[in-house]
Design goal:
Blueprint lengths: L2 H10 L4 H16 L2 H11 L8 E3 L2 E3 L3 E3 L10 H4 L6 E7 L13 E4 L4 E4 L8 H9 L7 E5 L10 H15 L5 E5 L16 H11 L8 E5 L8 H11 L5 E6 L6 H4 L4 H5 L4 E2 L5 H14 L6 E5 L5 H9 L4 E4 L1 H6 L3 H16 L15
Parallel strand pairs: 3-4, 3-13, 4-7, 7-8, 8-9, 9-10, 10-12, 12-13
Antiparallel strand pairs: 1-2, 5-6, 6-11
Bound molecules: flavin mononucleotide.
Flavin mononucleotide binds next to strand 4, strand 6 and helix 13.
């Protein structure tokens, strides 16, 4: 058991999760302003094993393990999170205009029996202008992704409107983002049924709008398949829609848990008292299935997959990579395991590579899919 799990987590978990998160952001912002703390963190945690280095989509990663979107929605903590041993960090989701997100509280719950979280934030954001101003003066030791979403105004928007908005918001971040992730899958924004860009024609329109910028960094699409995670018709429709747009370099598959009663230990009554998207280990198996299905169909010279959903251990990260992910992200495990998580995952990955005789982590990518 780590010191975090034994001494710190019990204290943090006594307080409302959104409040603790807010305090974590304030503390990180303060720590991040100190050059001494920044370099101490880097010395303590930075991935330093050359076998973990990968170059993908024109970017160099010191480890394939990144921090997923949602932890640092407003770029307050990036000076700290980028020195915790992650190979890349994703800030956001950021929307063009400031938004308080969903009004009803609480809107974040811990489902401790499942090491999960339940989220009904509805993409609160300080807005693109403020987040850009916060990030622009800083230099980060690892690639910085900016995850964008349409502004949650409390009423549903149209795909055309959201496309124009996302196109403008990308423009704001061209100078700071090493990559852009378009969050086409936020489950908590009022939208009616399904995602705004599930239809290939709407996705094509969004990408045409983005293509007005001539100097785009790599763009990854964070997508929730509307049906089964491995539905080949949906995969092919997305691949067809993105084919004309070379700036799309890959996909982050966001597979929801649509059967919480059947898959979680948390009692039904406790689940009924919460709402929103479920994160954590219950996403692991369906996401693995999705990764395999997408990996079988993508053109690997054009696109990569980023695996996120329920990773708790190096074994989990390795399995996602063997299933086709070139990079992976974690979020919920950071809440349950604390800031030593990424360094532990990095060390574990090296051990697994040594066990399997790999000399670089890239050799693991899609290994399960090879004959
Ligand atoms: C509290 C919370 C807020 C999140 N906010 C965002 C977000 O703003 N944008 C986004 O793309 N994903 C968001 N996510 C989803 C995570 O990036 C990730 O896809 C998901 O949590 C599954 O990974 P995990 O099981 O490792 O947490 C959020 C997740 C959590 C727990």
């Amino acid at each position: 058991m780590t010191f975090y799990n034994w001494a710190i987590r019990p204290l943090l978990f006594r307080v409302d999760p959104e409040r603790i998160h807010h305090l974590t952001m304030l503390t990180s912002a303060r720590f991040g302003r100190s050059a001494g703390i920044r370099s101490a963190l880097a010395n303590l945690y930075a991935p330093d094993d050359p076998r973990l280095r990968v170059s993908l989509a024109g970017l160099d990663f010191s480890s394939p393990i990144g921090l997923g979107a949602g932890f640092d929605k407003n770029g307050e903590a990036a000076a700290v999170t980028s020195r915790l041993g992650f190979g890349f960090v994703e800030v956001g989701s950021v929307s063009e205009m400031p938004s308080p997100g969903n009004e009803a509280r609480p809107r974040l719950w811990r489902l401790t029996e499942d090491e999960a979280l339940r989220v009904h934030y509805g993409c609160p954001s300080d807005g693109a202008y403020v987040v850009f101003a916060r990030l622009r003066a800083q230099k980060f030791p690892v690639p910085l992704g900016i995850n964008l979403v349409e502004t949650n105004t409390g009423t549903p928007t149209s795909a055309e409107h959201a496309a124009e908005e996302l196109g403008r918001t990308i423009g704001r971040f061209l100078d700071v983002a090493d990559y852009i992730a378009l969050n086409l899958s936020c489950p908590n924004i009022p939208r009616g049924a399904g995602g705004l860009f599930d239809e290939a024609s709407q996705l094509g329109n969004l990408l045409r709008v983005c293509a007005r910028h001539s100097n785009l960094p790599p763009v990854f699409l964070k997508i929730t398949p509307p049906g089964a995670p491995d539905d080949p018709r949906f995969i092919d429709s997305v691949l067809e829609a993105v084919a004309p747009f070379a700036f799309v370099k890959g996909f982050i598959l966001n597979i929801p848990n649509r059967q919480p009663y059947e898959t979680l230990r948390t009692p039904r009554a406790a689940l009924d008292a919460t709402r929103g998207g479920i994160t954590g280990p219950s996403l692991f198996e369906p996401t693995k299935m999705a990764l395999r299905a997408w990996y079988a169909r993508i053109d690997r010279s054009q696109h990569i997959l980023i695996g996120v959903g329920g990773i708790r251990s190096a074994e989990d990260a390795y399995e996602f990579m063997m299933s086709g992910a070139s990079l992976v992200q974690v979020y919920t495990a950071l809440i349950y395991q604390g800031p030593g998580l990424s360094a532990r995952l990095n060390r574990g990955l090296v051990r697994l590579m040594e066990r399997d005789g790999l000399t670089n982590i890239a050799q693991a990518i899609g290994a399960h899919a090879r004959p």
